[in-house]
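Marked as duplicate of an earlier ticket. Keeping the data here for the record.
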Amino acid sequence: MKTRIITGIWAGAIFLALLYIGGLPFLAFMAILTILGYTELVRMRQWSGSRIPRILFGIGTLLPFVGIYEEAVDRTLPIGLSPIAWAMIILLIGLFWNVFSKNVFTFDDVAFLLLTAVYVGVGFASFAYIRLLEHGLTWSLLIILLIWFTDSGAYFVGKRFGKNKLWPSISPNKTIEGAVGGVLLAILLGVVFESIEPTVGFGKVIVLAIIVAVVGQLGDLVQSAYKRHYGVKDSGTLLPGHGGILDRFDSMMIVFTVLVVLDIFA
């Protein structure tokens, strides 16, 4: 417990400081987390094949940051191709590597690395994108608080009233009662936050709270499914007492991605 608390303090301080600073420092921080998260997933699969495709797809995780960087510094990078075009090139390289390796590097390997690159890269890039918006700091803090309150509500309500398992084959300790409690606590927080710091209006903040609470819990289940599939307890060991990067950011990655897709802050 002592290790967990100490890690939480220093890691939380670094994260919140960079979140407050924003701009390129936060963008760089998210890019670093992207590479670390990608590495964790590759290690979970106990990758033993060639390093070349793993490195190529690792580079691919950073492609979503190209457009965000251009927006942050208000200039166009002279790379000549859109991030989507670069992603397709990397995918084709993976497929060609399958042929040249005589199927030692399989289609399953290509699919795994591509899924991993998109899942991690888009997730952290979406976080960076929302932070760079005009009121990005306020919105980012609200989203993070909603996720934390959802987790707390799900835990305490589930522990006190939980009887019906939510998804026992993936996460045996989660309950339907806890999940509902998490959503309700997130709505309460959203209303209180809007009362103190008017941001998007009460109607929109309630919708935001519901989306964050539901999607956040699904994001946590996605990571649980990953770990259960590969037979590991934590995604990594970088954060003593907390596991890996993906163990701490699993919900945030999915939530920020969905909010960017929905363009809820438009």
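See parent ticket for discussion. The chain is about 75% helix and 5% strand.
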